[in-house]
Structure formats: C-alpha cells, structure tokens
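debug: dumping io for the single-chain case to check the tokenizer round-trip. Nothing else runs in this session.
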Amino acid sequence: MFQNGLAAPRWQGTPQGGPLSPLLANILLDDVDKELERRGHRFCRYADDMQVYVRSRRAGERVMASLSDFLESSLRLTVNRDKSAVDRPWNRGYLGYTLTRHKLPKLTLAKASLQRLMQRVREILKRGRGRHIQRVTEELSPVLRGWASYFSLVDVKRPLEVLDQWVRRRLRNLIWRQWKRPRTRRRKLSALGLNDYRAWKSAGNGRGPWWNAGALHLRHALPNRWFAQRGLVSVLDTARGPSRSS
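debug: decoded output
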C-alpha cells in the first residue's frame, strides 16, 4: 500500500483486486452457503456479494435478520447495512445484471452498469476532440469489446441496440464539431456522397452538433458500416456472439 505517495508494508487486509481476497471470502463464507442450503433457501453468491430469494417481503425481512445475526455472531463479520435491502429482484442489480419484471424473468442490464459505460465513453470522446476519428475508435473499441463480452449473458437485446446507436451518435457529434465551419461541412458531406444541394442545405442549417448527429443527412453520410470499417465494435454483436445473433 502507499502512504504519502511512498510504498509501505501492509500489516493487515489484502490488496484490492488481488486473487487472495475472493479466495479467503469463499473459504470463510462457505459456512454461509451450507447454512442457507440447510434452511432450503435459493440464493446466489459471488465472493461477498449475495442474494437470497424468498416468496414474500415478510420472509425476506426474517431471512435478512437471521442471516445478519449468523454472519455477525458466528463468523464475526460486519454486514454493510447501506448496501443490504429486502426488495424485488428487478429493483436490485447483481454483478452488473438485473432481471426483468416478466412472469418468466429475463436477464438484462442494471442501469448503473450502463451509466458507468456511458460515462467512460464520454471521457474518451472528450479527449478525442482534436484527434483523428480512427484514433478515437481504436481507443474506444477495446472498452466496448470488454464490456460487451462481460455482459454476453443478457437476454434482452434492446438496451444494447440503443447503446450502439448512442455511441455512433456521439461519434457523429464529435466529427461534426471537428468540421467546424459550414464550408468545411459542405465539402465533407459532398465527399461522403451527398448531392451538392443537400450538402449545402445541411451544412448551413444552423442547428447544434447533437441535433445534426441524429439527423438523416449525417446518418446517410456516416452510416453504420462507415464506423465498422474503421474498427468500431458493435456492443450488440459482440455480446450476443455468432451463436446468439440469429
């Protein structure tokens, strides 16, 4: 660990992100798994993150109280009350996922997971305002690929489609800003296949970059395949993979 910017020996605890922490958690919390199995509960646990599934709120509150008592009295652990709750499964995220409200629930994205990725994309694009779009997509694609691979288990594809559309619109917004002047915009649009009248009218429409990024003229000039040719990863295609794309 570091103190005042200098490396110092560690006398207690384990490094965050290291393999030792989840290993020790699994060894210690194995007793919790056995206790929940003995009681006949359905549950999921990953390291110290756990969800227990019951039929009613009253049962949930009872299990929460008894399980907290078991953890604190038998295992000498401290339960994080701020992160613990009795709630419907679709109101709670778990490892970045959540469930839909269908009678037969489907696995989908937790809102917080989507918001964290969108913030990461914004940060990358903010740094890319003066850079060639190829460099921007090269920096962006590994982030999207890693995120999409992690969420390859999602059953609901609509949030992934919307995310792909949003990323491409952000990139079109960036390109429109880089072109700056109407004369440059007209020349670029013409070079990308728009006829002279449409390029002239679109370049001088007086609308803001975000509006133009979603407008038909820029989507025709910079279609999805244009970004794919520059290496931009599709979140939907990566997450669903060849076996799930049909």
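debug: round-trip ok. The chain has a mean pLDDT of 90.
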